[in-house]
Amino acid sequence: MKSTRQQGILALISQQEVLKVDELAAWFDVSKETIRRDFNSLQDQGLIIRQHGRAKGIARGKPDSGDSFNARVKSHLNSKADIAGQALTWVDEDMVIALDASTTCWYLAKKLPDIPLTVFTNSVRVCSELEKKSHITLVSSGGTLQRKYACYVNPALFSIVRHLDIDLFIFSCEGIDNDDIMWDSNAINADYKTLMLNKATQSLLLMDKSKLGRRSTVKIGPLALVARVISDTEYRKPPT
Fold it and tell me: Which of 9, 172, 200, 207 could cross-link with 102 by S-S, CB 3.0 to 4.6 Å?
């Protein structure tokens, strides 16, 4: 969808600062003219600055209303552990999966069997868990450590993942509102998730019931972007 692609462009530019038309056309598998039209629309909204053959982001404050990783790790502990266990059925040998820096994905990392897998993540805690599993190839985003969220922020993230074929992106979010829009509490994590949603073949959302009917600070995108929601309550994903 046009709006989803434009949101993805903003997420990529926030990571990379400047991106070329041909790079984005290849990333989204659309024509250069389509990206140029997106640039025009985003510039009209005051979100980017167009330059010859490329666009750059406009400096903006990074909203941050979230609790730290340490504050969240024991919240709904039993539900998160059960949700993580259900997500294991989606993981097969030789897959390439991406995990976010959520506490639920940390529980999933702890439960992952030591089998041939490639795991890409921006999470410090996930890296610590998977370092112990010798059959898993671990690829970290690297970058600057954000201690509050136990994650890395890397301006070169786009370049790192552009040639990585991700089979499955597994993540959580701060909330899903009544219009089935996913939200996060800070722009850093929202940008990472938007980028991965556009990159992965399919995505899996892990969500405890406290996040239903809830908005936060930064919009990630429509729930229709994910293949399946795994929750501790009955939840039917809207049709795509």
Answer: 172
